[in-house]
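hey
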């Protein structure tokens, strides 16, 4: 069952990005997309309030409230990134989550990164250069400069920072509740915070509200988002975090394949090479933080 959850997590994440991108193509705003998917998940999880045994400890609810705020920010930033940049570029950028994880250790715990971890960072940066279209770069401009100044990539890295902070509080909440209860509360809090904000935004704007035409895509997005979050919680609850994060890197290759197959994104061979290098770098970092 654990390995099934790992496979679900690896596949659900890139497919969730696909449905987000399809909705942005239809003119739906990032906040509306995130609010709608959380709304569906929250409604599905409403029976958990009646049938489930909710933790009553302040530790659980305090951490879950922080998770809800951080998840809302991270998800809106992620959808904005998906709107602006190719899927086959954004998938590999997830490797920078391993780099982000080094920062708190240096600042808060005064840890010195190992040589292996620094080598992993080097691989991630080197692999990033393969994601950029070199033929479109002005003469003399660094490919890494183009990579880090791309607005979609900047939104994606910002989303990674907030999701990394969310993961810390999510792990704390898991010590006081089961994966299913934690997932149900995460979904319900998303319904409470995000869905009203999305409805308010659509009431003030025109031309980007959800319609019956994209309802099916919203349901598919909610399903893949729910499977991704629930499988992540189960894996973190039963599996060492470092090897789990290393295995999650396989989803970057799936993202590149989907970007090529579904959206005919260019330079796919170089992006496969870059994503493999970046995934290897991220794996080195997380396994050396075990």
């Amino acid at each position: 069952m654990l390995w099934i959850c790992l496979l679900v997590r690896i596949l659900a994440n890139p497919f969730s990005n696909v449905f987000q991108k399809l909705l942005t193509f239809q003119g739906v705003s990032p906040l509306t997309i995130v609010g709608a998917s959380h709304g569906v998940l929250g409604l599905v999880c409403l029976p958990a309030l009646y049938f489930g045994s909710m933790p009553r400890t302040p530790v659980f609810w305090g951490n879950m409230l922080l998770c809800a705020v951080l998840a809302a920010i991270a998800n809106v930033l992620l959808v904005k990134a998906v709107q602006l940049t190719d899927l086959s570029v954004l998938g590999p950028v997830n490797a920078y989550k391993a780099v982000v994880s080094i920062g708190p250790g240096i600042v808060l715990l005064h840890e010195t990164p190992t040589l292996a971890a620094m080598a992993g960072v080097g691989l991630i940066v080197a692999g990033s250069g393969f994601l950029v279209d070199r033929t479109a770069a002005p003469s003399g401009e660094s490919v890494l400069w183009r990579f880090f100044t791309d607005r979609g990539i900047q939104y994606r890295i910002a989303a990674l920072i907030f999701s990394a902070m969310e993961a810390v509080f999510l792990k704390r909440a898991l010590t006081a509740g089961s994966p299913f209860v934690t997932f149900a509360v995460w979904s319900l809090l998303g319904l409470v915070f995000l869905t009203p904000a999305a409805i308010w935004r659509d009431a003030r704007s025109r031309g980007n509200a959800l319609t019956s035409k994209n309802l099916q895509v919203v349901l598919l997005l909610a399903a893949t988002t729910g499977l991704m979050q629930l499988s992540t919680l189960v894996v973190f609850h039963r599996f060492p975090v470092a090897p789990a994060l290393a295995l999650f890197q396989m989803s970057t290759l799936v993202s590149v394949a989907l970007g090529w197959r579904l959206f005919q994104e260019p330079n796919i061979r170089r992006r496969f090479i870059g994503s493999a290098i970046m995934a290897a770098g991220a794996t080195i970092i997380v396994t050396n933080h075990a």
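The chain is about 80% helix and 0% strand. The mean pLDDT is 86.
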